[in-house]
Design brief:
- It is a single chain.
- The chain has about 325 residues and is α/β, with parallel strands linked by helices.
- Helices cover about 45% and strands about 15% of the residues.
- It is built from 14 helices and eleven strands.
- A five-stranded parallel β-sheet has the order 2-5-8-1-9. A two-stranded antiparallel ribbon has the order 3-4.
- A hairpin with a 2-residue loop joins β6 and β7.
- The longest helix is centred in the C-terminal third of the chain and has 17 residues.
- It is globular.
- The mean pLDDT is about 90.
């Protein structure tokens, strides 16, 4: 694994996306980490802050095929996956692929579709294939879904269940830009949209190769234990009705490996795990009703757990030295 090359490639991707998404490097990096891990991302934020542009600019920077699915109450599973069409010339049914057959899929306002339509997308995310009339069709690689939700407007929506939320590797927020950042956004769009200036710096094949490489990043046994202790703490917290599942532990491990590789390291630090704990775990937790009434949030609970759970100190010397730089 060429760490310098890996870090350089991922840095160029982030820089290309930042031509469009101004002042949100952490969000861009987390979205890219989700892709590198072979997972999927849920972006929960108000309209107009760049959720769609994040997906489109990432697809352009990676030279990947982009597909957008607008989720509405009348959306059918076949509108996502495709279906069999009768060909009169051959007198046979032929499969016509739906918009899910892309590399980077924007599932826009996923909570506006019925649970049946949501389930068809989540099945594709989990299995990496589409099954129609008993025949399975593999989805292209890389395959990455960015689903969006508006957390403010609930009228006419079908909220994702806890089991469905658990299928997303990360949940992100974009947030408002600062005043100076918003001025930059205005200046960049006076004549044309900056999306058209985003240049591809990787190919789909190179992205798949990067996905394989992050699995070579070293994770010390003491850090594996640290991850498990963090997740176990969510299962016994007084404010939580339901803690994170083992899928949360796996997600925290894999994203920490990607974070380390993007930083040019072949080993994970405790800080990698701490940085990713909230976006990986918060959406997997269910607060007790009385905690919700008090205004508690899952992210606050994870922050408390991070302060309470002891960070391992018996790391190998190179990792120990790097952790204290």
């Amino acid at each position: 694994m060429d760490l310098r090359k890996f870090a350089g490639q991922t840095r160029r991707v982030v820089m290309e996306v930042e031509k469009v998404i101004v002042g949100k490097r952490a969000t861009v990096e987390l979205a890219f980490i989700g892709l590198l891990c072979g997972g999927h991302v849920l972006v929960e934020d108000i309209p107009g802050v760049g959720k769609t542009m994040l997906a489109r600019s990432l697809a352009r920077a990676l030279g990947c095929r982009f597909s957008r699915i607008q989720f509405t109450p009348d959306l059918l599973p076949a509108d996502i996956t495709g279906g069999s069409i009768f060909n009169q010339k051959t007198a046979e049914f032929e499969f016509r692929p739906g918009p899910i057959f892309g590399n980077i899929i924007l599932a826009d306002e996923i909570n506006r579709a019925t649970p049946k339509a949501q389930a068809s997308l989540l099945e594709c995310m989990e299995e990496g294939q589409v099954t129609v009339d008993g025949v399975s069709y593999p989805l292209p690689r890389p395959f990455f879904v960015i689903a969006t939700e508006n957390p403010i407007e609930y009228h006419g929506t079908y909220p994702l269940s806890e089991a469905q939320l658990d299928r997303f590797l990360l949940r992100l927020e974009v947030g408002y830009p600062r005043r100076d950042e918003e001025i930059v956004i205005l200046n960049r769009q006076i004549r044309e949209h900056p999306l058209y200036k985003v240049e591809p710096v990787l190919s789909a094949e190179e992205v798949v190769a990067l996905q394989r490489e992050i699995r070579e990043v070293y994770l010390d046994d003491s850090l594996k234990d640290y991850i498990v202790r963090l997740v176990e703490a969510t299962r016994s917290h007084d404010d939580l009705l339901l803690g994170a599942s083992p899928r949360g532990s796996l997600g925290l491990m894999r994203t920490a490996q990607a974070q380390a590789a993007m930083a040019g390291r072949d080993y994970v630090l405790p800080d990698d795990i701490k940085r990713l704990a909230v976006p990986v775990l918060a959406h997997r937790l269910i607060l007790k009703p009385e905690a919700g009434v008090r205004g508690r949030r899952a992210a606050e609970v994870i922050g408390e757990i991070l302060e309470r759970v002891e960070v391992p100190t018996d790391l190998p010397s190179p990792i120990q030295e790097s952790a204290h730089v």
